[in-house]
Amino acid sequence: xxxxxxxxxxxxxxxxxxxxxxxxxxxxxxxxxxxxxxxxxxxxxxxxxxxxxxxxxxxxxxxxxxxxxxxxxxxxxxxxxxxxxxxxxxxxxxxx
Length: 96
Fold this sequence. Notes:
single chain, mainly beta, 1 helix, 8 strands, globular
C-alpha cells in the first residue's frame, strides 16, 4: 500500500502509528486534531493532505527527525491543504 486515507471518525493519531511503511501519500481529514511524534516516520511521503489547526507531538516531526513537515505546516498558519515535496530527499514542503 502506498497511500492511505484516514477515516473521518479518527481524531488522534499516536506516536509512530504508521511508521516504517511504504506510504507516498496520505489524506488526513478535518476530524484529526492531533498527530503524535514520528507518526509517519520511515515512509517515502511526498504528498500530505491535511485539515486545518492540527497539533503535533513534541519530540519529532511527524515524518521523523529533520523532515520539516511540521515546520512547513506551522509556517503556513496550520492551513488545510495538500503539502508536497519534490522527492523524499527534500526537506522543503510547499502548500498547493
